[in-house]
Write a structure and sequence with these properties.
Mean pLDDT: 76
Distance between the termini: 48 Å
Largest sheet: 6 strands, antiparallel
Shape: globular
Number of strands: 9
Number of helices: 1
Low-confidence stretches: 1-5, 21-27
CATH class: Mainly Beta
Structural class: mainly beta
Length: 170
């Protein structure tokens, strides 16, 4: 039995966030990104945004190989400035937590920069090359957050779960 008496407001807030996060993860729908004998990858949204369609072909990750990624989504906000935060964990241990500026509002390199709310976006990367990839067999969780605007409002959030059944070393 969980005892909540004597908790400070801050501790109670943390417990509430944990429980809400658990309910959100348990009730969301997983989508298959990749499923082969060597790798399984699923993604799910962790917010109330439109569920995008994401594809990766071929469904393999090797050193110096190429893959094609595509994503179709309808943003719920204008994409003037776009930031991402990518957190990678291996079996519950954070191995990377990085922030990227994708659209700055000035001479952006991506076609989706400047897209308006409600437009259908078809984003694709052809011949994406896996360079210097070193992954050890195991279960990985990748949290991807996309923020827009000066206030960095949440545009979309995804959780990607990857079960790598072999190791990739350079």
């Amino acid at each position: 039995m969980l005892i909540l008496q004597g908790l400070t407001a801050s501790e109670m807030f943390k417990v509430l966030l944990f429980l809400l996060g658990f309910v959100t993860v348990c009730t969301s729908k997983k989508h298959v990104l990749c499923n082969t004998p060597r790798i399984e990858a699923f993604y799910e949204k962790c917010d109330d945004s439109y569920t995008p369609v994401i594809r990766m072909e071929p469904c393999e990750i090797y050193m110096n190989t190429y893959a094609n990624f595509s994503m179709t989504m309808i943003p719920r906000m204008d994409i003037d400035r776009l930031y991402s935060r990518v957190q990678i964990s291996k079996e519950s241990i954070t191995v990377s937590d990085r922030r990227y500026v994708l659209c700055s509002g000035y001479e952006d390199e991506y076609d989706f920069c400047g897209a308006l709310k409600g437009e259908t976006l078809n984003i694709s990367y052809q011949d994406f090359r896996f360079l210097k990839v070193q992954l050890i067999k195991g279960l990985y969780t990748i949290n991807i957050f996309l923020f827009v605007g000066e206030k960095e409002d949440l545009l979309a959030c995804f959780v990607v779960t990857v079960n790598l059944k072999f190791s990739i070393m350079s």
